[in-house]
Each structure stands twice: as structure tokens, then as C-alpha cells.
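Re: that chain you flagged

S.,

Sorry for the slow reply, it's been a week of failed gels. I finally had a moment to sit down with the sequence you sent. For the record, here it is as I used it:
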Amino acid sequence: MFDTPVAKNTAAEDAATPDALPATEKQIHYAQALALKTGVKFPADLARNRAALSRWIDAQKCAPASKFTNYPSSKQVAFAERIARLKRQQIPPECFRDRTMMSRWIDGNKPR
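Prediction finished late last night. Pasting the C-alpha cells below so you have them in one place:
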């Protein structure tokens, strides 16, 4: 009954759809800022279709911005250091290179 796969529309097909909603100003500004940040040319024809521009933004956001993207935030580090002082422990060095590990260390050592 539902065995046929559903094909996703491409950006060109979306732009050709006459009843497609235009992209919002906020969406266009964000896409332009993202294009500048990543060094990718902003496709102006996508501004006519909200769904196509949204997919383009999602595709561009996936690329990591730098090697420091996965590092913990300064607030995370400060909070972890405060916990470490209270518990008189040291934070494992690998936690300073991975925000997920730092978060897990904080969750496991947070005073209750």
C-alpha cells in the first residue's frame, strides 16, 4: 500500500513551485551571515522559497566552524572548576577538549 518511496523536492523544484512561501527576512539574514561565516556563496534564488532555504541552512550548519567548536564553554569550565574546588578533585584533562565529556563530568560531580 505505502511501498513507494517518497522523493524529496530539490531546491530547483521548490523554487519552481508557484505556491511556495517566500523566505522570511530573518531567515534570509541568517543564511547570508552563515554564508559569510562558512565562505559559501549564498544562492539568491533560494530566497523565494522558505522550505528550500531552510534545507540549505541545515546543510550549511552541519559543517563545524573550527577545531574549537567542540571545546567546552568558558562558563562550563568555570562551573566545573568551582565543583572541583568544593570536592577537592581535579578535572580530567580530556574534559577540557570535549564539551560532552565536561558536561558528563559536571553532572557526575555536581553537589546535590
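What I noticed first: The chain has a mean pLDDT of 84.

Talk soon,
D.
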